[in-house]
Fold these 2 entries.
Entry 1:
Amino acid sequence: MSVLGIDEVRRRIKKHGLIKDLGQRDLKNPEGVGIDLRLGSVHKIIKGGAFIEADGGILLGSRKGVETKLVAEYVEGKVSEVTIKPGEYYLVQTHEEINTPLDLMPIIHTRTSLFRAGLLLLNSKTDPGYTGKLTMGLANLGPFPVKLQLGARICNIIFFKIKGKTVSYRGQHQGGRVSPKRKERQV
């Protein structure tokens, strides 16, 4: 696997809609090989009961997520912020949506300004074929509250070129769903 250079990423953004709703900075003047993504929404977990069942026999396991409540959402041109207190944990989404083709695998990296402030951004790889906003966990591990402005750059996405066959993502979170509220069978 190799990493796509910024020229190829920008070409795919313009020609194929690889990333939608990018900020002007990353449309016009990105740096390195990745694109910065912004904080789009913050969701508080308000009810537990999540479980992930093991696969058994011919059926895939069931799962249920937590129940969340939207705390804040980025609106272009409007200044708003959230305060993440020590020990708090939220689910956050990017403002941007990605449209991952079958020949690429995006990887998210936390911007250093977050962990320098005591924030941990939990994320994963993204499968080929996934479309939608990206959902991640955000925790304050530091001893002080941290203010985050909606629309602030929180992570950087890089794209790995895949050699060989891929299988398109077909999971429950396609389209950017934050958490499944009721029990459902994995696909």
Entry 2:
Amino acid sequence: MNKANNDLTSFADHLDDQYGKRGTAIREQYEEEFESFRLGTMLQELRKKQGLTQEQLAVKCGTTKTYISRIENNASDIRLSTLMRIIHEGLGGHLKFSVDF
């Protein structure tokens, strides 16, 4: 390892420094917000991959363009039933879950 790499910090260490260790209130808030961001980004990528506008996706799954936009921009909590409808009816996919501890 060269001297320049000695000053590098891993992303995990950076998160610990910025938001505290996992289990602290600030870190858990960060993790929750990051997961919401990831979900919005994932839905946006899937929508674009299928060549759909927000309006077209909204019509297919029975919601509004504004709501799709809010989800994609991490400005709205999303109900599980709505997420399932967007994935299944809007995008033609199937939602799978996993839980990590």
